């Protein structure tokens, strides 16, 4: 039986963006405490909101509220990075949705769980086209100092690295170090910005990554190392 008093999807989104009145927000808070079905709907509404933010589909007011109230949560920021990667792959496939909407929601949650568990976005592979590259996202909070190295499968051809940067006005280079020897991966990278985040992106050939324990280094134009990540390519990553 349908609950005629159940909040609409729009109401749930407005709650997420703190656009409800205090009275309406408090009433919804109380209901969420004991309504598991509603809590699940809220999680789905949040996934859709993050997906819209990743695609640049939010209006100006909603985008500002999203930045102000949702991006303060590190997990939301990580999910946004994953959603951007999915959105980019969809764009490369001509803007076609390659999965049905409920399945896309499950994929977004799996991507978020993968980030939380392994501190890196797992390869985001679609069934077509074959030329789509697996994408790996390196976030600032998973830089050197994390408890464990990041792991990724040995690529067959190439991968796309997306790396969060601190300053969108600077240019960057990426390099990989093995046993103290540094090999350039990409130079003169111009940061992109979306929803308050800045990142650089580069296609990296499999031969440059190699296999084994590596150190991915983000280098500012001045030559200083801004941050680095320890990764294990292949073996433990497969």
UniProtKB/TrEMBL annotation:
Keyword annotations for this protein?
Membrane, Transmembrane, Transmembrane helix
Q: What's the superkingdom here?
A: Bacteria
Ranges annotated as spanning the membrane: 107-126
How is this protein named in the record?
Anti-sigma-K factor RskA
